[in-house]
Write a structure and sequence with these properties.
heterotrimer; A mainly alpha (327); B alpha+beta (474); C alpha/beta (319); B: 474 residues; alpha+beta; four-stranded mixed sheet; elongated; C: 319 residues; alpha/beta; six-stranded mixed sheet; four-stranded antiparallel sheet; 12 helices; 19% strand
Chain lengths: 327, 474, 319
């Protein structure tokens, strides 16, 4: 096996747009769960809506800015729809409703009856919605090699996309840092700890929770856009599994930390790719097929998630002390 | 009363918004002509996201395989296939819709088959319609019943032979003849909804018992169902046992895993006082790990528990077969048994006491851990049984069967009321019936969405579920 | 130090004394005593200067009536104690008054404003702040952050404004100074950067009370402020409560500790089975045979945990 290829493939994940997409989704989830304590079990729903909002308006010929606005608007409306009825109820309800609603979006999106709009289960293919984005690139055409990696400058899984994705991540992290250390973030954390106490201090808890839900959802929608840009908008690729991946990333990096989502996403994808590549290289195809390698990758993620919650619930960057008081 | 009014109004507003959007989405879903792709004959066919399967085993009246018969597929797509030495044949198709399989009349007569043609409906995204087994032992009239499409294969293929746009006209033409059959379709869907609801009930009653006693919503319950089905497959197809010992084996394995996971994972976590939300995330991890472990060992295709195709018969307006009815009967017996256990036995009463108030139950001398252990064993055993029954009913089980049903289980449990055993059964029946009946009105591949929408609407109107106790709201 | 001479240090403690007014006096105490002197000792009696007036407040849980209060008034600037056996409905009554629970019937006015069906956060903003029987501190926030959450004005608590520190830094500084002064007063200043979850039960009670005072409330409702507090701290807590009165804050508290009630309360209201069964000045109420019968005699073991409604609800939510 070619060790250099394995290394470069593995490290390629470090800067891959998908990794950045997951970072954005996890940052959104961090605002939900890490800061406010909302159990959002349907972050993939926000991502899928964002992706649809962007891709459908793009394929209809809207300009880039309008498409991004459409994606954000969809996420906001969706958050309002989910939040108004459930935020006053217990945390179980939000979990159930977000889970079910994300699934409903996916089922409706992939339905043959929606083929005209969403392309059904085949989805919206890249040439229908990525051209404008690729057109905005200031980079020259062709491809560039940087250290180990060679990618096209502008097309599909490109340097331009990587650049935009990670700049978005940087902005998101910066905003999050600002919010975490502001009085607003303090109120959210207070709600996470004890919402009745916050209520008794004169804060409108429902409004704060709604703000958090919307904000996290918007980050999810951006994650969705970045997620689909190097591929097509396929509803099944943004299913429940994506939500669970996002949770794993958040808990791996550490909830309620700024760099947790970034570290979690990079680490998860690098490690996962590494393990898969090694398995593909080291174990003959007759013994374990490539489908089985893929399945094993998932098993690893599942087991990692279990172990994380059991043995290191604060994640890599979290503060153990903070979790000691599980009131 | 202002606050109460405000909160109700807000709920209504949310509900209204939600239903409006839902309705809009439905309205947007204009039926679109399907693209025509070529169907092809394959040795074995497994349904995926992009293809469905029309297949079967051609047997004569004495169940002997008939080899080397040419079968013609017509309908949305066309192809021909030849049966192999075991009588097996399969078509992989890409478009949803109705397909007619035809063989030479003389061949049918020669082997004592009741029909030379049969029509099935393929829905790639549908759980039980992605693969259709075609049989020629029913008279033509009976096969027309199920599909609501009159006429023989030749007229069907005639209608389909034009461009893809003709499917629209074919559908309108169907409309008039379908009105006569709509009553029958309703009954058929109601029947299959009840059967599905019963199986779902078997799963969700167990899940709800776990929730009631431990407060844990287990995401890995779907995998317990899959496990049951796959173990039955191992029993019948790998170890070559008869079905009943295989089913017992599957249930035993299921119960055993329930016991083991309680001892190894959940009991220690409870002892460590890990919150139920964290435990829930652990079940998500477990679910992922198990699901892909199944895929690793059993592959991505559907595993049939029984190979033979049962003979179907008609009761009133409903077409069914013996295994379906037996499965339903078993489900009913087990659910009744569990109910009796909960209400008539000491242990059952203890279980309900723990559900009601674990601290109080513990204080009054009930061994809570013991009760929880039994609940886990029972719940996983029931899940395994439902997996077996589901596998028999649907002609097979695959690595992600349980996972696709998980949300419906949640819906059923929440609908009935979290923590109430009987509520889960009623919730399951409602979800099952709604899911199957809604396909009469909305596109078939959206029917699970309708069940989930019901869940959300119920949560908004009556958050405690149909049978749940009203909790004090702060 | 304050244990030996309770009132000498009050001027130093005071955070909101009116200009030029010294708090070493017992002015409010004297005024309230004088006012209440001639008030009849009957349940539901009218008082000269009530800050809170409740009428026909009932709350039923299933078939059980938890609260059924015909008429109830709290004297402004006074310290009113609400006592009664377990399950008498004291905490439920608290929950109703502060909007955490919705009554089946009834209305009440706080300082002339109709408060029925007002949301808890609005109740708090109107100057009626409560603490909880099962202390609610934000465990994974620092003591200082807990205090700052109690501040009524902080523009940085808006989602967008919070992004521009210039808009809220100044207010934050003022709030911090106030919080530190209060923490000093409640002997928690050394703990200000510790997580609130690391505090002892008694310290949490102190923190909760200090947090409630961040908003300069007109009426503080303390639910069992002494439960779980060690005797040494108890004394200083009593002094805090008395100093509150001298600063013009009205105090209502639920307590089982009869000595404490006798020591600091200006007025005692006794609840049993959801109703108010007796009212009066501490001395006479304690001698009332009806009270002794309903409360002390019937239930000698009064320090067992009270199944307060909010407490129960809390445990249900956590499940």
């Amino acid at each position: 096996m070619d060790f250099l290829t394995i290394i470069s493939n593995t490290l390629g994940e470090l800067i891959a747009p998908t990794t950045a997409a997951y970072v954005l989704a996890a940052i959104g989830l961090n605002i939900h769960f890490g800061m406010t304590g909302l159990m959002n079990m349907g972050q993939a729903g926000f991502m899928l809506l964002g992706a649809y909002g962007f891709a459908i308006t793009q394929s209809m010929g809207a300009n880039l800015f309008a498409s991004v606005c459409a994606a954000v608007a969809l996420a906001v409306i969706y958050a309002l729809l989910l939040g108004i009825p459930t935020l006053k109820l217990g945390p179980d309800y939000l979990a159930m409703v977000t889970l079910a609603a994300a699934e409903i979006i996916r089922i409706i999106g992939r339905s043959t009856a929606m083929t005209k709009i969403t392309g059904g289960s085949a989805g919206i293919s890249p040439q229908d919605f990525t051209t404008q984005f690729e057109g905005t690139s200031p980079l020259p055409n062709g491809s560039t090699t940087f250290l180990l990696w060679t990618y096209n400058n502008n097309i599909a899984n490109s340097w331009w996309l990587r650049l935009v994705a990670w700049v978005l991540v940087a902005i998101a992290a910066l905003l999050c840092w600002r919010w975490f250390h502001s009085p607003w973030g303090r109120v959210l954390k207070g709600i996470r700890e004890d919402e009745n106490a916050i209520r008794s201090l004169g804060k409108n808890v429902t409004t704060y929770k709604m703000q958090a839900l919307i904000l996290g959802g918007i980050f999810g929608a951006f994650g969705g856009i970045i997620f689909v840009l190097p591929r097509s908008v396929q509803p099944d690729s943004l299913g429940r599994a994506v939500t669970f991946y996002t949770w794993t990333i958040l808990l791996l990096g550490g909830a309620a930390t700024i760099f947790g989502p970034i570290l979690g996403s990079c680490l998860l994808w690098v490690l996962l790719t590494f393990v898969k590549e090694i398995m593909r290289g080291a174990i003959p195809d007759t013994l374990i097929s490539s489908n089985q390698v893929e399945a094993l990758g998932w098993v690893i993620v599942g087991v990692a998630l279990m172990c994380l919650v059991i043995f290191r619930p604060q994640g890599l960057l979290g503060d153990r002390k903070e979790l000691a008081f599980n009131a | 009363m202002t606050a109460v009014h405000i909160s109700i109004r807000r709920h209504r507003l949310g509900l209204l918004l939600f239903t409006t959007v839902f309705a809009l989405l439905m309205a947007l879903s204009i039926a679109t002509p399907g693209r025509t792709f070529a169907a092809e004959a394959v040795p074995t066919c497994n349904p995926t996201a992009t293809n469905g399967c029309v297949n079967g085993i051609l047997q004569d009246a004495d169940k002997k395989p008939i080899a080397n018969v040419t079968l013609k597929l017509s309908g949305k797509e066309e192809a021909t296939a030849t049966t192999d030495a075991e009588g097996k044949w399969a078509f992989s198709v890409t478009a949803d819709g109705e397909y007619t399989v035809t063989m030479d009349e003389s061949v049918a007569k020669e082997h004592g088959l009741k029909a030379a043609t049969a029509t099935v409906e393929i829905e790639k995204n549908s759980f039980d319609k992605a693969r259709q087994v075609v049989r020629f032992d029913k008279p033509v009239a009976a096969s027309a019943n199920g599909s609501g499409k009159s006429g023989s294969g030749s007229t069907a293929s005639g209608a389909q032979s034009g461009s893809s746009a003709s499917s629209d006209t074919a559908q309108t033409a169907n409309g008039s003849s379908a009105t006569a059959n709509i009553g029958k379709r309703i009954w058929q869907q109601l029947f299959s909804g009840v059967i599905f609801g019963l199986m779902l009930g078997l799963m969700s009653v167990g899940m709800n018992l776990v929730y009631g006693t431990t407060g844990l919503s287990s995401f890995s319950h779907g995998e317990q169902v899959t496990l049951g089905g796959l173990m039955a497959y191992v029993g019948t197809q790998v170890l070559h046992w008869p079905l009943i010992p295989a089913a017992v084996f599957a249930v035993a394995i299921g119960a055993l895993t329930g016991w083991i996971q309680n001892e190894l994972v959940w009991a220690p976590l409870r002892r460590k006082r890990v919150g139920t939300m964290q435990q829930m995330i652990v079940t998500i991890g477990l679910s992922m790990a198990l699901q892909y472990l199944f895929q690793f060992f059993f592959g991505g295709d559907i595993k049939g528990i029984t190979k033979s195709i049962p003979a179907s018969f008609t009761i009133g307006p409903v077409t069914t077969d013996a295994p379906t009815l037996i499965s339903a009967a078993i489900a009913i017996i087990v659910i009744v048994g569990v109910t009796l256990f909960l209400y008539r036995t000491r242990l059952g009463r203890a279980t309900r006491a723990v559900s009601d108030n674990a601290a109080l139950a513990s204080a009054s001398g009930i061994n809570v851990e013991q009760v929880v252990r039994i609940v886990w064993i029972l719940s996983c055993g029931m899940a395994a049984l439902s997996g077996v029954l589901l596998g028999v009913y649907l002609n097979g089980i695959s690595w992600n069967t349980g996972a696709t049903l998980l949300l419906l289980m949640f819906a059923a449990v929440t609908l009935g009321g979290l923590g109430t055993a009987n509520g889960a059964l009623v919730g399951s029946l409602i979800i099952g019936i709604v899911a199957d009946m809604s396909s009469l009105v909305i596109p078939n591949d959206m029917r699970y969405a309708s069940a989930l929408a019901i869940l959300i609407i119920v949560l908004l109107i009556r958050p405690q579920g149909l049978f749940g106790k009203q909790q004090r709201v702060g | 130090m304050p244990e030996s001479k309770p009132f000498q240090d009050l001027a130093k403690w005071a955070t909101k004394a009116p200009e030029g007014e010294k708090l070493i006096s017992t002015a409010y105490r004297d005024k309230v005593s004088a006012d209440l002197e001639f008030v009849e000792h009957t349940p539901g009696v009218h008082k000269p200067d009530p800050i809170l007036v409740a009428n026909n407040v009932t709350r039923k849980f299933g078939g059980m009536t938890a609260v059924d209060v015909k008429h109830f008034e709290i004297e402004r600037h006074g310290i009113t104690a609400l006592i009664g056996p377990n399950g008498a409905g004291k905490t439920t009554f608290f929950n109703l008054m502060t909007g955490f629970d919705t009554p089946n019937t009834g209305d009440w006015r706080f300082d002339g404003h109709d408060m029925a069906h007002v949301q808890p956060e609005k109740v708090a903003r109107m100057g009626m702040v409560r603490t909880f029987q099962l202390t609610k501190v934000m465990s994974r926030l620092t003591v200082l952050d807990n205090m700052l959450l109690g501040a009524p004005v902080q523009p940085g608590e808006g989602m967008f404004r919070s992004l521009i520190p210039g808009l809220w830094r100044k207010q934050e500084k003022a709030n911090t100074e106030k919080a530190e002064a209060l923490l000093e007063r409640f002997l928690l200043i050394k703990k200000k950067d510790d997580f609130a979850g690391s505090l002892s039960g008694g310290q949490r009670k102190l923190l909760e009370m200090a947090r409630a005072l961040m908003s300069d409330p007109q009426l503080v409702m303390l639910d069992e402020p002494m439960a779980g507090v060690n005797p040494a701290l108890k004394q200083s807590l009593l002094e805090h409560i008395m100093s509150l009165r001298e600063e013009g804050t009205t105090v209502l508290f639920v307590e089982h500790d009869i000595n404490m009630v006798r020591h600091i309360a200006d007025w005692v209201t006794v609840m049993a089975e959801g109703r108010i069964v007796a009212e009066g000045q501490p001395k006479s109420v304690m001698e009332d045979p009806a009270v002794i019968d309903a409360y002390l005699g019937a239930n000698a073991n009064i320090d067992l945990g009270d199944d307060s409604v909010l407490g129960l609800k809390e445990s249900e939510e956590q499940r």
